[in-house]
Amino acid sequence: MDSGLNLILNNVSKHTMLTPAEKDIFTQMLQSKKLKRKQHWVATGDICRHSAFVISGCLRGYTVDANGFEHVLSFAPTDWWMADMYSLITHQPGSLNIEALEETEMLLLPKTAQEELYKLVPKFEHVFRILAEKSLIAYQQRLIDNLSLPAAERYSRFCSRYPTLIYHLPQKQIASYIGVTPEFFSKMRKGM
Length: 192
Prior knowledge:
It is a single chain. The chain has a single domain (about 1-185), classed as Sandwich (Jelly Rolls), CATH 2.60.120. About 50% of the residues lie in helices and about 20% in strands. The protein has eight helices and eight strands, in the order ααββββββαββααααα. The chain has a four-stranded antiparallel sheet with strand order 1-8-3-6. Strands 2-7-4-5 form a four-stranded antiparallel sheet. The protein is an alpha+beta fold.
């Protein structure tokens, strides 16, 4: 877990500098979790009680519509955070499924510990505000892109946002993320 702790501390250090004592407080609140490929961490109807930081592997957040079609909302590769934010904040059952696309190791920060962390190390309010703001901006931009851009441009933006995943993910996951069928996606890529 030491390399995982270094990774998460480096992630936090992008937003604030922590003293050794503050690092200890934070790292003692973290819980290690491993998922097998295709294992769900959160499912529709669950109450999300943690934020997850990916140490290795990749998570995907998706919903399933009334016709059984999956709609990928986001991916969390190594060094990214993920949670069902609606459920985490409201303490209500969520509508997001979060699944490991491969064997994934993550560090979980319980919501209750996060609230305590704000009191013990107020710098973390700044850190999580920045993470929430970046997430909100990304979701807003993605919504605008999906409403106004052709599929090829949405794919280009996907490649910019997730450069490490382009050749790593199954094409059907990328197709779902950009809002096209796998067949259309395959034809589109051949034409590029």
